[in-house]
Amino acid sequence: MRLDDLSPAPGSRHSKKRVGRGPGSGWGKTAGRGSKGQKSRAGGNVKPGFEGGQMPLTRRIPKRGFTNLTKKTYAVVNLRDLVNFAADSVVDEEALRQAGLVKGQPEGIKLLAQGEVTVPLTVRVKAVSAQARTRIEAAGGRVEVV
After folding, report:
1. Using CA atoms, how far apart are residues 121 and 46, in angstroms rounded to an integer?
2. Residue 124 Cα distances to 61, 80, 95, angstroms
3. Would you say the C-alpha torsion 81, 110, 113, 67 has a positive or negative sign?
4. Could you list the pLDDT tens digit for every one of the 146 residues in the chain?
5. End-to-end alpha carbon distance in the chain
6. Are 78 and 114 in contact (CB under 8 A)?
7. Would the pTM count as exceeding 0.85?
8. What is the pLDDT of residues 92-125, one digit of tens each?
């Protein structure tokens, strides 16, 4: 077999429908567009969501809520996630990324108090809950808010 012997499987290819090429083709005259109206014209069609002048669904449904443009998104790390770190190690954003605990591009990392910590750690994060801070300090570590 050579490259010039290759051909597509039978029935897998078919020729493009050529509309508007005379009455003998079966697709002449109006070329399958029907007669008259916006959709029969060149370049004519309705925009997405247009409902013939009726108030569109997207405008009939009430608006709810509010989008805070200055909202900060924090990656959440719990105390139970810190069990794999060695005693007296520094836990910062880079260390948490290498451990696979932080992904994406958050504005900062917040430490929450689910779980226990048994070894002293130095934790450098953007935000920390009060309970998480007391648990780390009780284990002999310290928290630095950067």
Report:
1. 63
2. 46, 16, 10
3. negative
4. 899 999 999 999 999 999 999 999 999 999 999 999 999 999 999 999 999 999 999 999 999 999 999 999 999 999 999 998 999 999 999 999 999 999 999 999 999 999 999 999 999 999 999 999 999 999 999 999 98
5. 67
6. yes
7. no
8. 999 999 999 999 999 999 999 999 999 999 999 9
**Parallel, antiparallel or unpaired: strands 90-91 and 122-125:** parallel
Q: How far apart are CA 19 and CA 29, in angstroms?
A: 9
| Cβ-based neighbours of 47, under 8 Å, separated by 6 or more | none
Rounded distance between C-alpha atoms, residue 39 and residue 52, angstroms: 13
Is it true that domain 74-145 has CATH number 2.30.130.40? no
Sign (positive/negative) of CA torsion 56, 62, 64, 69?
positive
Q: Name the burial class of residue 89, with classes exposed (0-12), middle (13-18) and buried (19+) by CB atoms within 10 angstroms of its CB.
A: middle
| Domain layout of the chain by residue ranges | 74-145
Strand partners, 110: 76, 127
